Recover the amino acids of this structure.
């Protein structure tokens, strides 16, 4: 069942104040005109009561209130009149512009201006005198003045709402940027942590398994040497990462960022880690240009080689593991290939996060990467990781 909206308390206050003021003026005999069709003072109370009732719906039905109020004002002209009735009508004009539809808020000021001009011109033409001009001013104060005030207040309110909306959108965009920045930084940290530690922990897992499963003192001693070396290197890498994450690096100053110049040491370490698994690691650096590369490209290439060697240590069958570097023009090509197939001995588990990290690194640089089985030069099956990285700005 439909229930009408309750009047706003301010509207109730305006209605009560206007009605009370009009009654007081009527009781003390103050009127605004004389010699009308209905000279009995009590008749002026009828438009007054109607206007006070319309104040209750000035927000919920502003256009209806203005229409009926205009009729009540016209009726009031045939009585001795009441100043309270006139003032409440000006409030209805103001409310119609402020709370009415956008179209009404644009049209009412124009209509009231035309009414004011037409009334003024008409009275001046009928009886050219100062009184005609005064009547035009009063009509403007009753019609056009409240409409203009309502339009000004409405424009300010809409501007304030738009400003708040823009502020909310700015806050939302800033929060989205912050979340994206945090997510990107966490992804970068995850890639760095995985690439730095996975190589060492994979070697430790494989050699510790070998030391536990093979009861030979020499084999166990060699395995423990590899485990110790990878533990020390892994700890150094962790300290470097912690130094990068600290706001102050006094406790653990960060070391240099890995670059292609360190690939020899990386390949040598991978060879010693994988010797017991029957893998031989070799570096083929055939770059035509030996100039410096952007730091992000060098770091990405280094990490791709590092992760590929880690995967070879985990999964490759005995045989050669070849790291190839080629640079031609604006592209650096990194390729790591190993024998595909099963191999005897312990194997370290994999999570697949390494391939995801490599793809993310390459995507951030605008390059391409392909990882999967391929045909080797001797006709056998190999696992190959091949990445092409742009080395020039905008390449």
């Amino acid at each position: 069942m439909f229930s009408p909206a309750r009047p706003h308390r301010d509207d109730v206050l305006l209605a009560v104040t206007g009605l009370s003021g009009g009654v007081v003026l009527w009781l003390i005999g103050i009127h605004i005109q004389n010699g009308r069709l209905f000279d009995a003072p009590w008749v002026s109370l009828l438009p007054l009561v109607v206007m006070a009732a319309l104040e209750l719906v000035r927000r919920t039905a502003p256009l209806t209130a203005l229409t009926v109020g205009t009729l009540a004002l016209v009726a009031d002209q045939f009585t001795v009149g009441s100043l309270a009735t006139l003032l409440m009508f000006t409030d209805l004009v103001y409310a119609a512009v402020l709370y009415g539809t956008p179209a009404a808020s644009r049209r009412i000021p124009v209509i009231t201006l035309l009414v004011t001009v037409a009334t003024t011109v008409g009275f001046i033409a009928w009886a050219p005198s100062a009184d005609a001009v005064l009547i035009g001013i009063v009509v403007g104060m009753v019609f056009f003045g409240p409409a203009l005030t309502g339009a000004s207040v409405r424009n300010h309110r809409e501007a304030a709402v738009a400003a708040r909306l823009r502020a909310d959108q700015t806050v939302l965009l800033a929060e989205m940027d912050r979340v994206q920045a945090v997510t990107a930084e966490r992804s970068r940290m995850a890639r760095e942590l995985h690439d730095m530690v996975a190589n060492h922990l994979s070697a430790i897992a494989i050699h510790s398994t070998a030391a536990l499963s093979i009861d030979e003192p020499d084999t166990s001693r060699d395995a423990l040497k590899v485990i110790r070396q990878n533990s020390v290197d892994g700890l150094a890498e962790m300290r470097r990462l912690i130094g990068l994450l600290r706001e102050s690096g006094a406790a653990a100053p960060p070391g240099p960022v890995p670059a292609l110049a360190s690939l020899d040491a990386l390949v040598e370490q991978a060879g010693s880690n994988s010797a017991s698994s029957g893998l031989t690691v070799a570096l083929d650096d055939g770059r035509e240009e030996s100039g410096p590369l952007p730091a992000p490209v060098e770091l990405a290439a280094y990490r791709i080689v590092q992760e590929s060697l880690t995967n070879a240590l985990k999964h490759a069958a005995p045989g050669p593991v070849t790291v190839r570097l080629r640079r031609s023009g604006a592209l650096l090509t990194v390729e790591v290939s190993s024998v595909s197939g099963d191999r005897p001995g312990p194997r370290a588990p994999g999570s697949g996060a390494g391939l995801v990290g490599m793809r993310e690194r390459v995507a951030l640089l605008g390059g391409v990467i392909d990882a999967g089985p391929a045909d080797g030069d001797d006709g056998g099956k190999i696992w190959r990781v091949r990445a092409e990285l742009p080395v020039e700005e905008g390449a």
Observations:
- Residues 248-253 have pLDDT under 50 and may be disordered.
- Residues 9-170 form one domain.
- DSSP finds ten helices and five strands in the chain.
- Residues 130-213 form the longest helix (84 residues).
